[in-house]
Every structure is written in structure tokens, then in C-alpha cells.
């Protein structure tokens, strides 16, 4: 395998140092492990699809308009953070901050809507202890929500670091890794809406 | 490869990202249409929307996460391995739990 150092020019700042390359690769290993973690939660949810203990089913409770808005918020935030990395590679600090700021705002709106959604469901009488179906629902979607929360905190810290230190191999690598995490969360959400909200409810409408 | 790998570096417009965004919107809308407005059988709908979601995962990985840039065959191997284990876990669990019913 060719090392990045064999490429003469145009190396993105996050790959400039060998340490950065290794850390980015390490993060891909972490993402692969996360993929497996979420697959276990999906497997649990899909097995418990019909185990509602004669209680409410997903079809009766899920609030589709809110879920669809959440999906588009997260899709857009994934796009804006990819533009942030595009600008990072063009070394335009201000534009990186603007796009990453938009990403954070979209992420926070997503999280707010998800909390509101959970509150509505609990008001309607389905909690984590209602049935096996609802336990696995809250665990799966809640784990994703916890990841988004962590992603928002993490990206804010990385951005503060970025504002103070400017574009250098370290800050670029940190921002790039945080954006990889953000894209990953969006990819997981695609499967959440497909597996949880559509297969677990919408399909019966 | 050298020029191609980082060609976006000098590009003035993020075509790759915009194409990825349009694709992900289209794929999501398609999945919603198929689920809510088409009257396919349950099995067909599931196959179609899972295929759409998987395609969208590829769009994310390639257009946004730059999985295939550089000659980083290792990270493609790691992600493929993770995806393989994930598929085995989900499909295997459903298979085992359904077969006894």
C-alpha cells in the first residue's frame, strides 16, 4: 500500500501528519464497531416487532410528520458538515465555522424534536416498561439520540479549539474525525427511519 | 490517482457533496413514497426500502465520508467487515427467532 507521503502535493491538512492518518484510520475501526453495536439493537427491535403485550403498537403511536422532519434535519446537517470539510480543505476558516455552526444548529433542532417526540409518546402512555417492543424502541432510538448528544458536545469543543488555533494538521484532523462521526450518525438514522418507523409501523398504515 | 484523489482540493464547487445530498433526499423521499403511497406487499416494501437505505449508506460513505479517497484499502476492509458482521447479526437473529414460530 502506498503511504500518503508518496503523494507529492495537495494533501488535505487532516492527512498531513502521519499521526493524523493513523488516528483517522483508528476512527474508522471505531465506526465499524459502532455499526455492530447498532446492528445488535436493530436485531432486538426487529425480533420484538409484534411483542407489544396487547398494548399500543408503533403504527398507533408514531408521529410521522415529526419523524420525517427530523430525518431531513439530520440529512441536511450531514450535508452541511461535508461542505465544512470541503472548505477546510480549501483552508477557509470562516466558512468552515459557518457550515459547522449550521450543522450544530440542525443537530440541536433534531435533538429537541426527538426529546419532544419521546415526551409525546410517554404522555400517550407508552414508556420503556410498557412492552418488549417499546423497551427495544426506546433503547435503539435513545442510543442514537445519546450519540447525537455526544456528537454535538464533541463538535462544539473541537470548534472552540479550531477557533483558537486556526487551521493546522491537528485541528483539521479533529474536525475531520468529528464530521466522520456526524455522517455516521446520519447513516444510522437512515436505518432507524427505515427499520423502526417504516417497517415497525408505517408499513401497516 | 494523485491528481484524481484530491482533485476536489482545487475545485471551486463541491459537486460531489451536492450530488450526495440530492441523492440522499431522493432516496429518502422514495422510501417514504413506497411505504405510504404504494400498495406493494409487505415483503416487497421491506426489500425495497432496505435496499434504498443501503444505497444511501453507500452515498454517505463515498460522497461525504470520502471512504474511497487515497489508496486506503484498509479502511474499506474495516468498514466492510463491520457491515458483514452487522448483516449476520440482524439476519441471523431474525432467522433464528422466526424459525421456531
From TrEMBL, chain A:
Keywords tagged on the record: Cell membrane, Membrane, Oxidoreductase, Transmembrane, Transmembrane helix
Membrane-related topology note: Multi-pass membrane protein
Function: Catalyzes quinol oxidation with the concomitant reduction of oxygen to water.
Catalysis: reaction(s): 2 a quinol + O2 = 2 a quinone + 2 H2O
Name listed for the protein in its UniProt record: Quinol oxidase subunit 3
Compartments in which it is found: Cell membrane
Transmembrane segments: 25-48, 68-89, 96-113, 133-163, 175-199
GO biological process terms held by the UniProt record: aerobic electron transport chain; ATP synthesis coupled electron transport
Gene3D superfamilies: Cytochrome c oxidase, subunit III, four-helix bundle (1.20.120.80)
UniProtKB/TrEMBL annotation, chain B:
Transmembrane segments: 18-40, 46-64, 76-97
Record GO cellular component, one term: cytochrome o ubiquinol oxidase complex
Protein family per UniProt: Belongs to the cytochrome c oxidase bacterial subunit 4 family.
Protein name in UniProt: Quinol oxidase subunit 4
Enzyme Commission designation: 1.10.3.-
Recorded catalytic activity of this chain's protein: 2 a quinol + O2 = 2 a quinone + 2 H2O
Compartments where found: Cell membrane
InterPro entries: Cyt_c_oxidase_su4_prok (IPR005171), Cytochrome_c_oxidase_bac_sub4 (IPR050968), QoxD (IPR014250)
Entry annotated with the keyword Oxidoreductase: yes
Major subcellular site: membrane
Biological role: Catalyzes quinol oxidation with the concomitant reduction of oxygen to water.
Membrane topology: Multi-pass membrane protein
Gene Ontology BP annotations: aerobic electron transport chain; ATP synthesis coupled electron transport; electron transport coupled proton transport
Domain of life the protein comes from: Bacteria
GO terms of molecular function: cytochrome bo3 ubiquinol oxidase activity; oxidoreductase activity, acting on diphenols and related substances as donors, oxygen as acceptor; proton transmembrane transporter activity
Keywords: Cell membrane, Membrane, Oxidoreductase, Transmembrane, Transmembrane helix
Annotated signal sequence range: none
Pfam families: COX4_pro (PF03626)
